[in-house]
Amino acid sequence: MPHRTAIRIRDPYVLAEHNDRFYYLYGTTDDNVWNGPATGFDVYRSRDLDNWEGPYPAFRPEPGFWADRHYWAPEVYSYNGRYYMFASFKSEHRRRGTQVLVAKGPLGPFEPLTGEPVTPREWECLDGTLHLDGNGSPWIVFCHEWLQVKDGKMCAMPLKEDLRRAAGKPVVLFSASEAPWTKAGQDGTVYVTDGPFLHRLADGGLLMLWSSSSRNGYAIGVARSESGSVTGPWTHDPEPLLPEEGGHGMLFRAFDGGLVLAMHAPNKQPNERAVFIRMEEKGGKLKPLRSGI
């Protein structure tokens, strides 16, 4: 049973499953996440967030699956009686996209819900996350990648109730350069959008955690919807959520009711590890509690 600090993982996502009182940890788990053939996604489970059973094979592609590389950032949700995984995939001849997979239980095995990604076929997209609006209708929030547009975009698109396809056109929420904390890379025109995750505050406000490059390296920023809905408009907190390097964050409720931030740090392979930080929500702000888990 490996300790959390022994598990190499990027883009960690935790599903706190109240049915069996296990935490399930998903993430980018291939040894070579940037090049070469991909293997799939693994999942771990734990009672205490420190010691984890696994890995269990959550997804392994069947022969003929369209993508063979860049299996990134799986997120799993309990929705309408089944478990749905949103994850990014790519092949040499197909643009990157977020595809929806489905399983009967959180350990999987997950299988593609449809034959192709739900994000626009002609776009380079990644890091799709599921959001249910005030009416309970599903949306996918995802990144239109800097590789195609240079100044990465954060987008939202309504989905059909069964999550099989889009129910409308994508809406651009903001560009990465709009946040005052982001730092341009390469020739000064490239801005990254990564890892959106939406969080409803106790007062009804809607926040989005997302990641980009900052002066301190890979970082998590906070965007706020002025309308309280996914379509915004969105404004940005001036500084990242944490002062040190660490990114691709999400929030979950521990079984004791406390709010926990999951992210990976550092951002350099092969040293990436899941980091869990207790958070406090006060006055519409998120504050890390350094006592940790």
TrEMBL record:
Q: Which GO terms describe its biological process?
A: carbohydrate metabolic process
Report the sequence similarity comment from the record. Answer: Belongs to the glycosyl hydrolase 43 family.
Q: In which pathway does this enzyme or protein participate?
A: Glycan metabolism; L-arabinan degradation
Lineage of the organism: Bacteria, Bacillati, Bacillota, Bacilli, Bacillales
This protein's species is: Paenibacillus protaetiae
Per its record, how is this protein called by name? Glycoside hydrolase
The cross-references to SUPFAM superfamilies, in alphabetical order and at most eight, read: Arabinanase/levansucrase/invertase
Q: GO: which molecular function terms?
A: hydrolase activity, hydrolyzing O-glycosyl compounds
Q: Where is this site: Important for catalytic activity, responsible for pKa modulation of the active site Glu and correct orientation of both the proton donor and substrate?
A: D127
Sorted UniProt keywords: Glycosidase, Hydrolase
